Prior knowledge:
Elements: H1 3-32, H2 36-39, H3 46-59, H4 61-82, H5 85-91, H6 96-138, E1 150-151, E2 157-164, E3 170-178, E4 187-199, E5 204-219, E6 231-246, H7 269-292, H8 311-349, H9 357-381, E7 399-400, H10 403-408, E8 412-413, H11 416-422, H12 428-437, H13 442-504, H14 511-535, H15 541-564, H16 572-595
Antiparallel strand pairs: 1-2, 2-3, 3-4, 4-5, 5-6, 7-8
Helix pairs in contact: 1-4, 1-6, 3-6, 4-6, 4-13, 4-14, 6-13, 7-13, 8-9, 13-14, 13-15, 14-15
Amino acid sequence: xxxxxxxxxxxxxxxxxxxxLVVVFILLTQHMLKYxxxxxxxxxxxxxxxxxxxxxxxxxxxxxxxxxxxxxxxMTFGNLGEHFELTAIKSAGISLVRALLPIFIxxxxxxxxxxYSNNYFVPKSALEAYSLLYDIKQKxxxxxxxxxxxxxxxxxxxxxxxxxxxxxxxxEDIIIYxxxxxxxxxxxxxxxxxxxxxxxxxxxxxxxLFNGHFxxxxxxxxNRKRRSKNETLSRSSFTQSEYVLDLxxxxxxxxxxxxxxxxxxxxxxxxxxxxxxxxxxxLLDRRIKVFSEVPYSFYFHLRQDTMELPEYLRTYRDRRDSxxxxxxxxxxxEYDIADSLAQLENDGKKMAxxxxxxxxxxxxxxxxxxxxxxxxMALRSTDIKIPVSKKKLRKPGRIVKKPEQLINxxxxxxxxxxxxxxxxxxxxxxxxxxxxxxxxDKSVVQTALSLSRQAKSKLQTANSRIKRMNYDKNxxxxxxxxxxxxxxxxxxxxxxxxPLGAIIKRGGLGIPVxxxxxxxxxxxxxxxxxxxxxxxxxxxxxxxxxxxNAILLPVGLLFLRQARVDARLFDADFYNVVIExxxxxxxxxxxxxxxxxxxxxx
Length: 602
């Protein structure tokens, strides 16, 4: 490594690590403010808080690393340009691209580290942080007896203290209700004063009571629900008494972490790929099921009609059934081989076979499923389609009026098929028209409406289920692409920050911070918009998550091109010169028209 590379890299590393820590601290503070009410007042130890903050800090790294690279590259090359060091580098024959090379290699390394962090460390830290946060939310608040109010935080006890001294230990005018027998307020303890403190590593609360009375009301027949005339009241006095109360319910109980592993932010790329594939197959299975349930939604109309599956569903169904058939046949061969070996072993030992009823039943089900799949696939391979049945005009045997019976006022039965063939003059359409003109029974109309509503309800339920499954699939797919997109964002932020700093030629924390915030807000807004549209199934998850990188990459390349030619995009003189050139061009054009005798108005 050359000295110039060491100089540029050393000037970048200091601001990078400093800005990274500052960004992580700001993001961590902003994130923890949402859970401030759930943490305060729980009497948590420093070890628990440190563990929670550490894991949430690791959880913030996918956003912190690109922002730190953007800000530090802006500051580094802004300082080099402000102190004319960048000019000296160029005058020595070193191009800007060559000057960017050492930091670019470092950024590539940070991109790899960011990817492994997003893929391995962040999911584990998210699992630890959110499982611990859940346990903190479930934890009871710290023991806090307030003056003049009953405290019911301790199980089976209700305590009231009318006066509590500043030392937090001395109490006056104490009332204790004992509910351990679940018999109401029948055990009461009154005391003039007392002392409260914890023992055995804060596992138990000890109450020392002085100068008080104990009241106990009891029912001799043992019936709690029915009051008896033989109720007794016991009263006793004491000069000193002690209560030892269990505080185990105030401890922090950890929940099994496996209950939280299904969340998308706690999965890595390989797990997310499996999840997306599994949900995709479930979605296709559900759509195939909707098509298969159509004939069962009708009694007569469309009962034997066929609805062709879309090409993608038919391809998936054939592949799914083929895989299932192959797996069942392989499993059947394994069982057959095992049965043959067991039979040979039993024959060698001259022992009668001991059939297992459960294995026999499972074997029968497997063979039945194999035959069923083979029949389905054989029918599909012959490419035989069930013809669409002609709609039944009326069930044979229904009472209708024939033309000759309409004249005589008689009513009889008519078989439509026979009627069409016997009467050569009357066509099938005539019979249909007669049945349409006939007034339908009220029960028939109600039945038809009921069946229509049932079919509509089934389709609405299926569509809602498919929509929800598709949303869940998009959520996991979004997380899959976010892991890679946030890693590549490190390179995009460097391509924007370094050339922009060389163009601005301003160091420090003024303009670089302002410009970095502007571009990061643009990046963040585009990312959030793409993620929202992907969840709503407006765009594909890949397009929504990679849109920010795709939009800002040309901007970074444009800045790099302008920095190579020493463009002054952020100097006021540059725009003044441009405005002056436009004004001179307009004046020359107007003077030329005047000399030709043409006024601007004409």
